[in-house]
Specification:
Blueprint: E1 3-7, H1 11-23, E2 27-31, H2 34-44, E3 48-52, H3 60-70, E4 75-80, H4 84-93, E5 97-101, H5 105-118, E6 128-129, E7 133-136, E8 141-144, E9 147-150, H6 153-164, E10 170-171, H7 172-179, H8 189-206, E11 214-217, E12 221-224
Parallel strand pairs: 1-2, 1-3, 3-4, 4-5
Antiparallel strand pairs: 6-7, 7-8, 8-9, 10-12, 11-12
Helix pairs in contact: 2-3, 6-8
Modified residues (4-aspartylphosphate): 52
DNA-binding region: 124-226
Protein name: Response regulator transcription factor
């Protein structure tokens, strides 16, 4: 049975979500504050999280940030209707989708089903990605072919985003938006040089100047290939 974590402090809404999702065939976990939400997240490893922003103890932004440090779990953000800034901030911070309150039952179930359908199995900190890559969030580093490369925050975030989108080209503008919060696209050269540094560190760590899992796609952006045979920048 697919497990869904609901992190919501409104008890009436939480009960309604639990009832709706249970009737739809999901196993539902619930936390009414951010700290308990994180505990359940890493103890039970659900397939998807519904996350409210206005939570006690740790707010939704903090929960999302810590989740993204340790997992690529799909996250559906629950936001106040009309709060466009919250929705934009959530997507840039790594949420996969958002749903304004109040929402209809059918729409919520459709969004849950779509997220589960289009996402690969969740990766967790310490898990190995294909062909020998492992992210180490507590040290902001990556283990590539058995050798650890220490990364800057920017380099780590770049690699994390590319890995989460394995096989898909992520454009320079998308990386500017999601790593540097630069939606206007100014300073595109910074992406090029940050990726150069990232790839150089992975190659040097493995002792093989010809092998790294990041591929430059000319005129488009970058892709995590996972095969250690990326093209030159």
């Amino acid at each position: 049975m697919t497990r869904v974590l609901v992190v919501e402090d409104d008890q009436d809404l939480a009960l309604a979500l639990r009832t709706l999702l249970t009737r739809a065939g999901y196993e539902v976990l619930h936390a009414d504050n951010g700290r308990d939400g994180l505990r359940l997240l890493f103890a039970d490893r659900p397939a998807l999280m519904l996350l409210d922003i206005g939570l006690p103890q740790l707010n939704g932004w903090e929960v999302l940030e810590r989740t993204r440090d340790l997992s690529d779990l799909p996250v559906l953000l629950l936001t106040a209707r009309g709060a466009e800034t919250d929705r934009v901030r959530g997507l840039r911070a790594g949420a996969d989708d958002y749903l304004p309150k109040p929402f209809g039952n059918d729409e919520l179930l459709a969004r849950v089903e779509a997220l589960l359908r289009r996402t690969a199995p969740t990766r967790w900190a310490g898990d190995s990605f294909d062909n020998g890559l492992r992210l180490v969030p507590e040290r902001r580093s990556a283990v590539w072919q058995g050798h650890e490369a220490r990364l800057s925050d920017i380099e780590y975030r770049l690699l994390q985003i590319l890995v989460r989108n394995r096989g898909r080209v992520i454009t320079t503008d998308q990386l500017l938006d999601r790593v540097w919060d630069d939606p206007e696209g100014t300073g595109r050269e910074r992406v090029k040089f940050a990726v150069l540094r990232l790839r150089r560190k992975l190659r040097q760590a493995a002792g093989d100047e010809a092998a790294d899992p990041v591929e430059a796609v000319r005129g488009l952006g970058y892709r995590y290939s996972g095969d250690g045979d990326g093209e030159g920048p």
